[in-house]
Every structure is written in C-alpha cells, then in structure tokens.
Amino acid sequence: MSRSFDDDWRRWIAENLLLDVAPETLGAALASHGFAPADAAREIEAALASPYLQGGARLRNRLRKRDWMLTVYRTLARMRTAPHADANGGVAIVERRERLSRDEFFESYYCQNRPVLIGGMLDAWPALGKWGYDYFRARCGDAEVEVQFGRDSDENYEINQPKHKRLMGFRDYVDLVEQSAPTNDFYMTANNTSRNRVALAALWDDIPPIDTYLDASSPDKGFFWFGPAGTKTPFHHDLTNNFMAQVMGRKRVRLVPLADTPFMYNHFHCFSQVDGSAIDTERFPAMSNAQVIECTLGPGELLFLPIGWWHYVEGLDVSVTMTFTNFLRHNDFASAYSTYHEL
C-alpha cells in the first residue's frame, strides 16, 4: 500500500519546486520514499497549479534579485581588498593596523563594512598586567556569576543557550577553568552579562574606555567572556558592529563577509549549519564560494567585527575577552531586524 501525503511532504514538494528541482526528479525521490508514482505526479501537478506556489515563485524572484545585488557587492569588495596571504599556508588573513585614527577607522572600516585588527589601543589597560586566576579570586571571588554548562551534550548549544545557564561562585569558576583541560562544555559569555556585569563590576576599573572609537557615556560598558582553551562560538552573525578586545590568551577567528550570506546555510535566525572548526564543503558545497578570512587574536589586540559578517571563534588558550558595541556612530540595526525564526 502506498503512502499518503501530509502537509510536511507537501511543504517539501513546494520548497523543492521553488528551488527549481525538476518535477521528474521530485517524482523519483517520492517514489523512493514509498509514494505511488501516479500519486506523486498528481501532488506535483497540483502544487504547480496552485496560486499559492505561484505567489511564492514571485517572492523567490525578488529574493534572487537581491542575491544578484549581493553578488555585485561581493565582486567589488574582492576587487578592492585583495586577501592578505598568510605565509604559512596561503590563508586570507584580516588586515592589521596600529593605532588607527578615529576618522580612518570609521571611514575606511566601520562605514565600509570591513574587518580590521588594531594594535596598540589597549596599552593603557591595567587588565593586561593584572588579570589572572589569583587576581580574579582576590578581587571578585565571593561574587555569584552565571555560566553556561552542558554545551558538549547539545549540538545546538548556542541556540539553546538559555537552557544551559547555571549560577555559581566566581572563585569556584576560576578554579574550574584553571584546572580544566581544553573543553567547550562550560563558558562564561556575553549571554550571561545581565548578572555578571554587576557581579564583576570591580573588574571594569581595569579597562578604561576606548574613547577613540567608543562612546564613554553609554550605559553599555562591555561584555565579559572567560573560559578554558577549547571554547567555541559557532558560525553566526551579529545584529550590531562589534569590537573584540583580547585580554588573556589567544583566539582563532574565522570570518565570512556579509555579502556571502547566500553560501552560509543560514537555517535559523543568525546561525549557520556549517561547523567553523572543520568546514565540510562536501556536505555544504556552497561554502566553496564563500571567502573565509582568519586571524589569531592575542592579548592587547582589538578586532573589529562588522555587522552581518559571519564569524566562528575558538579559544586556543584559557582566554578572557571583552566585547563592545557602544560605537560613536550609529549601531542600532537590530530594530529593523525581524528574522528571529527558521529560514
């Protein structure tokens, strides 16, 4: 007895027709899943005749027009900024500048949606000389902080991060990090900031504002990231421009331009299905078209992450990072964003 069609299979047919999969190919696929060929042909014909699908096709065409515009931006960007080759392997690396002036930063990078690694801007931070296990325990050891745990047991740990929150003493967390082997199972991230910014307020005395680029009067005073070697933040894009200021340890960062979004297998909100630690172009062939740019962020360095750029971050050592979004120029792009759902 052949299978009957339900709405999930009808949705599957519609999505594949909108992707220009040939009806004959769909029919063969349905037959391999137990549907009678005559029933499959009838469902496909009904879908093709549906005004709902025809309306969807019109929206698809509009999206293709927007994809073409991204192609123009992508091509022009690659003409303007030829990748800097790493002498060790030919991998494109993020451009590095020293003590970039305010005007050049905003005009050449912020407003042009280009990443840059900036040296020399954190030299006045006491944190670079003070922060470490003993200092953290002495300064804020009695504070109660929020940390994410159980990340290794959840493939979608970042999407499901509210389920992984746990409260504990900061001294206990510092001890845990100090004694840990490399792992992604626990991590204190920006998602834990609402509680931790208050609990660890004393540490903010050690990171004076980077007022060359940031608004020192803003209530946004930065986000604290602290974890062992091996922590990972999967490929995603942010809804703001961001600074990553590295205080302890090193992080490897992989970036993909905003214009390459069509290649990123964006399945939900701002997240990608692609594993940034080992990009699998057989499983995700479109990733072969994406420009992947890398850098290793070390203590005292400041990385500008432009809005919409996909990035994967991995802790190479025990690391502490501060991130900031309170730029002197407009940075409210989230209010126009509404795609907080499955794509």
Automatic annotation (TrEMBL):
InterPro entries: Cupin_8, JmjC_dom. Residues 196-343 form the JmjC domain. PANTHER family: HYPOXIA-INDUCIBLE FACTOR 1 ALPHA INHIBITOR-RELATED, HYPOXIA-INDUCIBLE FACTOR 1-ALPHA INHIBITOR. This is Cupin-like domain-containing protein.
